[in-house]
Amino acid sequence: MVDNPLAGFGKDNRGRSLEDADELRRALGKMLDQANATLKAFEDARAETGALVAEGRSEDGLVLVVLDDDGSVSRVDIDDSAMGHPASIGRSVLDAIHRAQAEHARQMAAMADKLAGMDVMKMVDDAMPEEMRERFKREQPRW
């Protein structure tokens, strides 16, 4: 939570002195500094996120899905041995996509944690279905 530099700056502007105007200028300067710091933190987080790549491999190991920094599917690799089981390919692809999306959400939450100073990772974990959360904890390292 960012402090409001204007908090407590008089409610009645009648008869305010030049000293009060200087106080207001200092408060506005502090607000500008805070806004610039927030913008810099956002730009830094976005630059780091730009390099973000999330991967998800299906439980059977036959499909790998890669998401780019926007969360869009950028690559799908299907193992040649999956061709012998065409009925299960769809399930494997969906499983890999879901795992990649969970990884992407966790990486984005980690960026938001840095930027917002709040526990976005916990919010993502809480929103994730229990089965996926447990499976993710077993299979993926946490940062």
How are the SSEs ordered, and which strands pair?
Layout: H1 18-50, E1 54-57, E2 63-67, E3 73-78, H2 86-116, H3 120-127, H4 130-139
Antiparallel strand pairs: 1-2, 2-3
Word description of this protein:
It is a single chain. This protein is mostly helical. It has 2 domains: 16-51; 52-139, Nucleoid-associated protein YbaB-like domain (Ybab, Chain: A). The chain has helices at residues 18-50, 86-116, 120-127, 130-139; strands at residues 54-57, 63-67, 73-78. Strands 1-2-3 form a 3-stranded antiparallel β-sheet. Helix 2 runs antiparallel to helix 3. The longest helix is centred in the N-terminal third of the chain and has 33 residues, at 18-50. The model has no long low-confidence stretch (mean pLDDT 78).
Domain count, please report it. 2
Name the beta content range: 5-15%
Give the overall silhouette: elongated
H/I helix tally: 4
Task: Report how far apart the termini are.
Answer: 24 Å
Q: In the CATH scheme, what's the topology name of the largest domain?
A: Ybab, Chain: A
Radius of gyration over alpha carbons?
A: 24 Å
Question: Do you know the CATH architecture of the largest domain?
Answer: 2-Layer Sandwich
Order of helices and strands: HEEEHHH
Number of beta-strand segments: 3
